[in-house]
Amino acid sequence: MKSIRSFWGGLMCLFFFNQSPLFAQTIYDQDPMQRLPIGMQLSVYQPHLPTGGQVDKTRICPPNWWVGMENPNLQLMIYDQNISQCAVKIKYPGVKVLKVHPATNPNYLFIDLQINPSAKPGKFTIVLSGSVEKTYTYELQARDRSPNRNQGLSPADNMYLIMPDRFANGDPTNDSFKDMSSDLVNRNKIYFRHGGDIQGIIDHLDYLQELGITAIWVMPLVESDQPYESYHGYAPTDHYTIDKRYGTNELYKQLVDKAHAKGIKVIMDIIHNHVGDRHWTIRDIPFKDWINQEWPTYTKSNYRDAVWIDPYASEADRRRLADGWFDSHMPDLNQRNPFLANFLLYSNLWWMEYSGQDAYRIDTYFYPEQDFMINWGKRMQQEYPGYTFFGETWVQSTLAQAQFTLGNRLSEGQRYLPAVTDFQLNYALLEAGAGKQGWTDGANRLYLTLSNDFLYQDARRNVTFLDNHDVSRALSVFNNDWKKFQTSLAALLTIRGLPCLYYGTEIGISGAGGSFGEAGRRDFIGGWREDNLNKFTAAGRSDQEEETYQLLHKLLHYRKNTPALQTGKTRHFIPEDGVYVFFRYDDAKRVMVLWNTSDKSQEHALNRYREMLSGFTAGQDVLSGKSDNLNSISIDAHSLRIIELKKP
Fold first, then answer.
1. 392 noted as active-site residue
2. Which residues is 75 bridged to in the sheet?
3. Beta carbons of 284 and 53 less than 8 angstroms apart
4. Which CATH number fits domain 567-646: 1.10.3720.10, 2.60.40.1180, 3.30.360.10, 3.20.20.140?
5. Is 210 a catalytic residue?
6. Which residue in 363, 470, 506, 518 is the catalytic one?
7. What is the rounded distance in angstroms from the CA atom of residue 201 to the CA atom of residue 167?
8. Which of 157, 238, 392, 545 is labelled catalytic?
């Protein structure tokens, strides 16, 4: 461990001189996809043993708690020098020590508490005695019962995915810090930090509100003090602290409050599968089995989601999926360790109560132990009834995707995940939008994908999208064909599900390349003071960008005011000649959507749809405002018509 600290200390010393021209010339090459500064190596796998190092900072997790929680139990984790064999005393009305657990590492102690309903808000002292004498002050706070907290999500929402480092830089003074593992900022490099932050999001809440957004999913904001690729946030190093390059815990809370004031919900992105190798619990690990490290050398996950439902799957393959590492700098967490499981759970409960945020998006959902994920969901629902969360299920079949969801028709036992990121619908939308034709291809693939919705309790809860941070930008997938791109966006906003736009999709940000769509992780031009254009305004956008923005603005607001597109039923018809027709309807309104995915314009007869048109005499095009009869409708190649049906 000492040699490792020396290595990182030396590397930090090099970073301190990164402002000099000579240093700048030696760490950068000419490739915008440069992953590491010249001279730096990728993290190397090494075993982590709970031997007990020098404690650099005393920690208590969670840092505080609340009275009146639904479940009275709480497990504290204290990190301090040589405390694992200490006895614990607490004298505070309504607080009882149930059990004390020493860790293998002498620097950790776990305390099970019961906080009775009679306990009052206030501070009390935790007294440790034995091998060392220690006292800590701990606080119980009153729960905030203000309205609009922890609202949850519904199909009525319009979601917007933000990569905070790339959206807007509202506070240039926090772009880098010398006391972090890297202080490099370079907007010309995809894998380096660019400087976006929480203040930048706050500064553009009016923009999002005007666009028609009702929920923002913000990629991980907690500290990721990693020497490279910290910009995406998926290698956390502290579960209770916002990365100071984004802001502070208090500023995040302000973001939630200010978003709520504008009718916008906030979704926090969390990871149960792994952490960064610079996480403080990895540098001085509590138990050897805190992480999965049963293999003698670095072993990746096999990434094969099918093993969870494969009746013939080997246990070796299942263990490789769950216990293999996602990346060499992301140690794989072992949720079978009950203390690790509680560490994750209480951090998630803490953020919900502290910030009042509305939902969680759970990264890499199918990789962790599924018993843990089920129990986690049950506990979250216990504390926050009606609260929602959705999981990333980047899988290869609807069966594999649906098995994780609440009330699905596949899994034995109860599941608690209300929704998933609907990759199967994503694949189908992109294929239909591209115009591929075939018995099971293109529009037919979309039809067949939706026909599997019976596997879900309610597929309308699924988060639908054309692109996100892990895949190529949709405009690039369509080879910069703006018409196909815009038409597919219109389909996204009318088809079943909770639609999610990736930041900048509304102005056609493009980019393809990288293992996880990294080339599309571009800055939103106008979010930095030095930008020559401001694409947050119409004046800064090109004609095609403005056309796309106006299309989405119109459809997002139409969707906000049309429950039939949110929670309404769906009726669809087998595609013919590349035309896919579906209806969204409820008792108040009926909307017909006709999507011509072919290369030819068509005059499309409507006789086939009489079962859905009965009682209606005309229709009005939602986008153009023009009226249509219900005998036939003309549809241009690669275009989509949205017709609101009218009764006499």
1. yes
2. 112
3. yes
4. 2.60.40.1180
5. no
6. 363
7. 7
8. 392
